[in-house]
């Protein structure tokens, strides 16, 4: 089932998400719905807060980037078949010199900006079968994971922009939160205060 993606301005996107356990209700169904929602919106990652749930769960499938000839062969190989579920993820380390890449977000449509992130991360997490992993990712794979991880920490990519960039996109963000945008996937907008 395709779920509505929560738009910028909804408080759930700014909440630090809570860990879950194996007994979380309908977890498999939720994960399946998140995959369907992400693919329907042509995304490469989706976090539970983006579908209105403040829990530590996100999914990624950056396979489309594996066809980008501008990336190194090592980067493309790592991105191929990297479809993964991350439950209760914890970044253990982020290393290297920060690099910029133009990021966007399904919750913030039509806004893309360069964001600086470290190129290598080590992350511990459970997969959908509750098997614990600790893996290291580099390059674009690390970036996709960092972006989704930020969502479960209550951080949006726009929070990482300079104050000048934030001022320049302020109007666009206000329009998104008011639902004044054209998109081709389901979204849920923050409730507007009714003027009296």
UniProtKB/TrEMBL annotation:
Cofactor(s) it depends on: Fe(2+)
Cofactor note: Binds 1 Fe(2+) ion.
Entry EC number(s): 3.5.1.88
Active site (record annotation): 148
GO molecular-function terms, A-Z: peptide deformylase activity
Binding-site residues, Fe cation: 105, 147, 151
InterPro entries: Peptide_deformylase (IPR023635), Peptide_deformylase_sf (IPR036821)
Catalytic activity: N-terminal N-formyl-L-methionyl-[peptide] + H2O = N-terminal L-methionyl-[peptide] + formate
Keyword Iron: yes
Keyword annotations of the record: Hydrolase, Iron, Metal-binding, Protein biosynthesis
Function description: Removes the formyl group from the N-terminal Met of newly synthesized proteins. Requires at least a dipeptide for an efficient rate of reaction. N-terminal L-methionine is a prerequisite for activity but the enzyme has broad specificity at other positions.
Record's protein name: Peptide deformylase
Gene transcribed to yield this protein: def
């Amino acid at each position: 089932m395709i779920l509505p993606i929560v738009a910028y301005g909804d408080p759930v996107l700014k909440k630090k998400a809570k860990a879950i356990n194996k007994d979380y209700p309908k977890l498999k169904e939720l994960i399946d719905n998140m995959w369907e929602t992400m693919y329907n919106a042509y995304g490469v990652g989706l976090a539970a807060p983006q579908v209105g749930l403040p829990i530590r769960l996100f999914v990624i499938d950056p396979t489309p980037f594996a066809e980008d000839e501008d990336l190194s062969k090592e980067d493309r190989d790592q991105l191929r078949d990297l479809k993964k579920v991350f439950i209760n993820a914890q970044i253990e380390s982020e290393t290297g010199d920060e690099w910029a890449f133009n990021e966007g977000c399904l919750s913030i449509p039509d806004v893309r900006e360069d964001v600086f992130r470290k190129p290598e991360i080590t992350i511990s997490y459970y997969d959908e079968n509750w098997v614990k992993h600790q893996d290291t990712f580099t390059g674009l794979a690390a970036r996709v994971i960092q972006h989704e991880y930020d969502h479960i920490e209550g951080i949006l990519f726009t929070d990482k922009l300079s104050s000048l960039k934030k001022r320049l996109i302020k109007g666009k963000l206000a329009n998104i939160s008011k639902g004044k945008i054209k998109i081709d996937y389901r979204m849920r907008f923050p409730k507007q205060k009714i003027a009296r």
